[in-house]
UniProtKB/TrEMBL annotation:
SUPFAM superfamilies: Formate/glycerate dehydrogenase catalytic domain-like, NAD(P)-binding Rossmann-fold domains. The active site is at residues 96, 270. Substrate binds at residues 15, 75. NAD(+) binds at residues 134, 198, 203, 220, 239-240, 267-270, 279, 298-301. Keywords: NAD, Nucleotide-binding, Oxidoreductase. This is Alanine dehydrogenase. It holds the Pfam family AlaDh_PNT_C. The keyword Oxidoreductase applies. Belongs to the AlaDH/PNT family. It comes from Billgrantia endophytica. One of its GO terms (biological process) is L-alanine catabolic process. Residues 4-137 form the Alanine dehydrogenase/pyridine nucleotide transhydrogenase N-terminal domain.
Amino acid sequence: MKIAVPKEIKNHEYRVALTPTGARELVARGHSVAVQAGAGEGAGFPDASYEAAGARLDADVESIWSDAELILKVKEPQPEEVARLQRGQTLFTYLHLAAEETLTRGLMASGATCIAYETITDRQGGLPLLAPMSTVAGRMAVQAGAHGLEKAQGGSGVLLPGVPGVAPGKVAVIGGGVVGENAARMALGLGAEVTVLDKSIPRLEVLDDRYQGRMKTIFSTADALDQMVRESDLIIGAVLIPGAAAPKLITRAMLGDMKPGSVLVDVAIDQGGCFETSRATTHAEPTYIVDGIVHYCVANMPGAVARTSTQALTNATMPFVIALADKGWQKALADDAHFLPGLNVHDGQVTYAAVAEAFGLEVVDPASLVR
Ligand SMILES: NC(=O)C1=CN([C@@H]2O[C@H](COP(=O)(O)OP(=O)(O)OC[C@H]3O[C@@H](n4cnc5c(N)ncnc54)[C@H](O)[C@@H]3O)[C@@H](O)[C@H]2O)C=CC1
Ligand SMILES: CC(=O)C(=O)O
Ligand SMILES: [Mg+2]
């Protein structure tokens, strides 16, 4: 199969969808791999390392896209990338469509087959291609939040660990999944006082058992959120309803109950965000202030630590990339019930229920397309 790896073009996105190690695996299986010149530079993989792996370097973005049967990316396609996609091509990347109607309609209009990393499932009920980047983003969320608390950033001037004789800061994490657990773990490591809220009792049981009471676990209700808003120095939004737009859990009115200069880090921004006042920001300008509250809402947090993130992401995507390349999308999805929910759009049709629901579109059962 003809596989292409374009250079990512989202603001400060330095990850790449395939490492030289991955390229070598695909080439050894008889596939042709074209890598856009410079695509791996930001993650520490120079062009020569892809050539040594048997990939072909191509400096021309037009031919990278037009010659490919399977396109491997990291971030959701930007408008100029959507314009390059064609019917008959398969795109494999993060899509986060429920937050992006224009992108959804653009992908439908392209006629291409679009498979999302973030809606592929596993036997344990997890999201194995989201989890590695959620681990990274969760770990980064606390450092972003701690920076936001500094006065020069508009923050309250609280140092999360405190100092001898001065109490530590309070961190609330809403959603105790992969992002939430990793954020909570980093905040504990810094010496902050940490509370995790979740709607899932089994998940709170896991956290309680794992951390032996070192973090508080609270069932997420409107009352609990009111209390967290009043008490916390830093609130991290880490909820997810897979494939769907995030619920808005903190309203603008609630910001008035927060201590001035407190920080909201909305990691769930890629699914639209879980705070009413969240809007996606970039690494170039990651924060803004609403009603005295610092907001950090970067939708591609792992892009900032591209070396670690690229290795973690490609470790997880590689088996699926190999299946797509060896079998083609229809057989690869038909053979694997956990890969099938990755299909979001095919030939103008939406195949993921939560995305169709978000925009009042009809949903087509992906199983009906791969038989
Ligand atoms: N901004 C960025 O760069 C990145 C963002 N993310 C995003 O972070 C979000 C979280 O991802 P994961 O932790 O992997 O998901 P996850 O599925 O592991 O965890 C989500 C948790 O939220 C809980 N939850 C759902 N509704 C809730 C509610 N109303 N109140 C409290 N808890 C609720 C669930 O029970 C679950 O435990 C996703 O939107 C994901 O796409 C992930 C990686 C990078
Ligand atoms: C998950 C996601 O959106 C990212 O890693 O950028
Ligand atoms: Mg995004």
